[in-house]
Amino acid sequence: MLEIKNLHARVADEGTEILRGVDLTVNDGEIAAIMGPNGSGKSTLSYILAGREDYEVTEGDILYNGESILEMEPDERAASGLFLAFQYPLEIPGVATMTFLKTALNAQRKARDEDELTTPEFMRRVKAAAGDLKINPEMLKRPLNVGFSGGEKKRAEILQMALLEPKLCVMDETDSGLDIDALKIVADGVNALRSPERSFLVITHYQRLLDYIVPDTVHVLSNGRIVKTGDKDLALQLEREGYSQIIEEAA
Amino acid sequence: MSVTELRPRTPAETRLIQLAEAQGENENARRPAIEALRREGLPTRKVEAWHYTDLRQLMGKRLGSDDAVEALRESGETLLEPLLQGSAVVDLDAPEAAHLPNGVTGSASAGEADWKTTPNRLDRSIDTVRAMNAAFGAASATIDVAAGTHLDHALELRPATGLKSHAFTTVTIGEKAEATIVERLDGGTTGAPSTGVNMLHVGAGANVLWIVDQEKGLDSSHLGQLSVRLEADSVFRLFVLNAGGGFVRYEVHTDVVGEGADVQIRGVNLLHAGQHVDVTTTLNHTVAHTTATETFRNVVTGGHGVFQGIIKVARGAQKTDAKMACNSLLLSDEGDFSAKPELEIFADDVQCGHGATAGEIDADHLFYLMSRGIPGDQARALLIKAFVAEVVEELEVEAIEDALETRIEAWLEANIR
């Protein structure tokens, strides 16, 4: 599904190198967790995967189903099945949530040469997905994410993910700002999407999320590189011992 | 004896007088206004009210050629659908002929246009817009909405086109009446100016929504003014859409004279290359306990936009709550927007504020939309539309929002890639 090869990247404006040779493979159907301390490059990695312009890849490559995506625009990446659940979903006043969802869904379908969804079919899907995530339909009448609480925003991200049915879901600290009930709802939403054809890259600080979304592999990102890889027990070890111990051992 | 220093006349000023004199009708009534213009000329940029809009230069561009008068005569009538379905259309040169709903009367008034007062306190000793309106022999129309009348449909006011596109309109909304009025400024493909001066009186407890839909041709010049007097507990809502015109100046001057009155001004200015669009407003609070909000959103792909807004609070006007904002989306280096919001407050217990912003499309917003599969151009269009939709939606009348959004979308489709 995803192969990241010796990826080096820096902030385009400043030249500060943030990723210093990331190597990572995520197989079809795999849930890979990336853990790491603040400033290790986790969010940068997620933005680069989604195609944000503020970063410049200086070396290495990102292969998605065997093909490099570095030259693709964010919308092209999305249409090909990549989805980033934002750590801080943006509030966009003036853009109605439903208009946004429909525009995004139909834009992706169009890019894949599929027919646009009819309005009733679209409504049916939104209603079903919102119900699963315990999202109040009134919320969807508001402008995109405007006035949503932190937890509501995260749920809205998962709603978008469920509707867009991506193949590779990158989740950037989806657990931050969630109380335990909201965390369970979000995790249930993610688990419902698990399938042999769909992979997840779950970025988190804390092991807690991984109790609910159980990963196949756990990777420790430190100072712009993957320094250790293991199974879900690695997350528990990190929780017990802290990052510094493991990062030191790896070095 | 006073000594008046006469500046040399510019070609624009000379032409303007010629044009006014060529109007032909009712010259004696117009003579004093023509003489005032001859004496004072057009304002220079030293006159504060005209600092960002150099009328002499802008008019000069348009009035330089001898074709102006002929072109005026040739311009024809256009048949328009009303902006809002079901509206009663009032042709301002023949208001008595309009089919008006019960409770509304329209008549042509004999008196000359009132150009002796200067509602724009930053202007010169003569009010430039009104003096031009009078000099061109504006057709005077009077429209009265009787007290207690609730109109189901809007009144759409249309100035005459061509030579006679000069209107002086007095609208009186009786106590507790409710009305929606559309000022339709359309057509006009000649460089000679059209003018429209409106005097609106909003009676106690009345509720008025006034919509200016300005979509004139790119060769046209328009000078407009709306002076509003609000009595106690009345509500005056204004929406200005500028989506056309080569050179446009629209002034709004409100005098809030009754306690409990509320002013809500919203506007969208859409500009592209070759245009100069100026909206100048005065919110004048003279009594206690009145409120006002004013928000303009500007989309600039070229040309020059101007917003001047002043909130004036008199000594006795305690508890005034007034806010003003002007936000511009600059989509090209070719265009610019000058915003000058001001406060002038003589009361000590008020809440007043203003702000002006100018920026590009938010890159984070754009990335967020694109990351969901929406192509860049479509995402940009969505964000531009959202930027202006926010103020349109504040109208909270669906039919009117739809009508305005249709006009705005047409502009965006034609002008954003």
UniProtKB/TrEMBL annotation, chain A:
Keywords: ATP-binding, Nucleotide-binding. It comes from the Bacteria. Residues 2-248 form the ABC transporter domain. It holds the Pfam family ABC_tran. InterPro entries: AAA+_ATPase, ABC_transporter-like_ATP-bd, ABC_transporter-like_CS, FeS-cluster_ATPase_SufC, P-loop_NTPase. SMART domains: AAA. One of its GO terms (molecular function) is ATP hydrolysis activity. The keyword ATP-binding applies. Belongs to the ABC transporter superfamily. Ycf16 family. This is ABC transporter involved in Fe-S cluster assembly, ATP-binding protein. It comes from Fulvimarina pelagi HTCC2506.
TrEMBL record, chain B:
InterPro entries: Fe-S_cluster_assembly_SufBD, SUF_FeS_clus_asmbl_SufBD_core, SUF_FeS_clus_asmbl_SufBD_sf, SUF_FeS_clus_asmbl_SufD. Residues 166-387 form the SUF system FeS cluster assembly SufBD core domain. Pfam families: SUFBD_core. GO terms for biological process: iron-sulfur cluster assembly. This is SUF system FeS cluster assembly SufBD core domain-containing protein. It comes from Fulvimarina pelagi HTCC2506. The lineage of its organism: Bacteria, Pseudomonadati, Pseudomonadota, Alphaproteobacteria, Hyphomicrobiales.
